[in-house]
From TrEMBL:
PANTHER family: GH03217P-RELATED, PTHR22930
Subcellular compartments: Nucleus
Protein name: DDE Tnp4 domain-containing protein
Organism: Macrosiphum euphorbiae (potato aphid)
Family: Belongs to the HARBI1 family.
GO MF term (any one): metal ion binding
Signal peptide feature range: none
Length: 373
């Protein structure tokens, strides 16, 4: 009997201890919950439950494109996190969070809340990922050379009947809305009176970018941006390094060194009007490429960052993902309710008070020769 009594007392004592621990556990949870913010904790699970259509409608990329990106990015992202010296967010979460940020117009606070993180961690993670993503620039945005150059010219030939022969690319500038510091607003305010940075790009017949130059202030004319780009400097000083002698890049009147349309349309001959029509018909691909880029990655409707460098990296990252998607046959149609963006290009004529250089004269001579064909 004594043994049973001891056992019973011991069991009662253990039950009292467990009850006490439960009370302390509940009290601790209550204290922590007062300081902790409520966040979405299962969004990664939700994304895994999306069907392919819903996944692409939210992330603007197919699952297959995201998997290709992750294969390319995993070593780059891990290397970048080691250098940063801070433990990084789970790689898959960082990937989906960055794509979500680029594909939507939510703030860092909203994106962080969606993925169960605070605003600061979400912001740092996305910036780290975008910086690492820029290392893929030379792999996905490639200037055609050798056999690739020949194929690019043939692709333009196959694009439509009315085309400009020997075209290797089409160029234009796109103004991306941004918010700058008050002291610099005049530098970034373009002729349409909103603040922007310029994305200068050349694309091929498949709407893939083969050259980009981003980050120049929106108050600058496209011709100025072009002349300060590596492409412009090379074509001015040593054009044969970029393109063969008989090939050309199509642009509008803002690019006097390239193949541009005839001006003063009211006095043009039929031959010159036909050339302008052929050039416009071929060159439309760059406008389509910009439309596809801004339609897929809605972040480019307006970029907010304290650093112009980071804004430029975001634009570069979007262009890389644009090419990755097209190479992966990840096509995208701009939905009607997404056509509220405005592709701002600079097509007004500006007198730059610069004498016609040899390169510009060569472009004019080439245009006159092509218009006779």
């Amino acid at each position: 009997m004594n043994n049973n009594l001891v056992l019973l007392l011991s069991l009662n004592h253990l039950q009292n201890i467990n009850k006490s621990l439960d009370k302390k556990k509940k009290l601790l949870i209550q204290l922590l919950s007062k300081n902790a913010k409520a966040r979405i904790t299962n969004f990664m699970l939700v994304t895994s439950l999306y069907d392919d259509i819903d996944f692409k409608s939210h992330f603007r990329l197919t699952r297959n494109s995201v998997e290709v990106l992750m294969c390319k990015m995993q070593p780059l992202y891990k290397s970048h996190n080691i250098k940063a010296g801070r433990p990084g967010i789970d790689f898959q979460k960082a990937t989906l969070m960055t794509i979500w940020y680029l594909s939507n117009t939510e703030t860092f606070r909203q994106v962080g809340d969606r993925f169960g993180l605070n605003r600061g961690i979400a912001c740092r993670t996305i910036h780290k990922y975008v910086r690492a993503l820029s290392n893929l620039l030379d792999e996905f945005i490639i200037w055609p050379r050798g056999s690739s150059e020949t194929k690019t010219v043939q692709d333009f030939k196959n694009l439509r009947i009315n085309y400009v022969p020997n075209t290797i690319g089409c160029i234009d500038g796109c103004h991306i809305r941004m918010h700058s510091a008050k002291a610099k607003r005049s530098d970034y305010t373009n002729r349409k009176m909103f603040q922007s940075i310029v994305l200068l790009a050349v694309c091929n017949a498949h709407l893939e970018f083969i050259y980009i130059f981003s980050g120049w202030p929106g108050s600058s004319h496209d011709a100025t941006v072009f002349k300060n780009s590596l492409l412009g400097e090379t074509l001015i000083n040593n054009p044969q390094e970029m393109i063969s002698k008989n090939l050309h890049i199509l642009g509008d009147s803002a690019f006097p060194l390239l193949l541009v349309p005839y001006k003063a349309t009211h006095i043009l001959s039929d031959r010159e009007k036909l050339f302008n029509k052929r050039l416009s018909s071929t060159r439309v691909v760059i406008e389509q490429a910009f439309g596809l880029l801004l339609g897929r990655f809605r972040r480019l409707k307006s970029i907010e960052s304290k650093s112009v460098e980071l804004m430029s990296l975001i634009m570069t990252g979007a262009c890389i993902l644009h090419n990755l998607a097209l190479k992966n046959n990840d096509l995208f149609e701009i939905e009607d309710n997404d056509q509220d963006f405005d592709i701002q290009t600079d097509e007004f004529h500006q007198n730059l008070d610069v004498p016609i250089a040899v390169t510009q004269r060569n472009g004019i001579d080439k245009r006159n020769e092509l218009s006779l064909r």
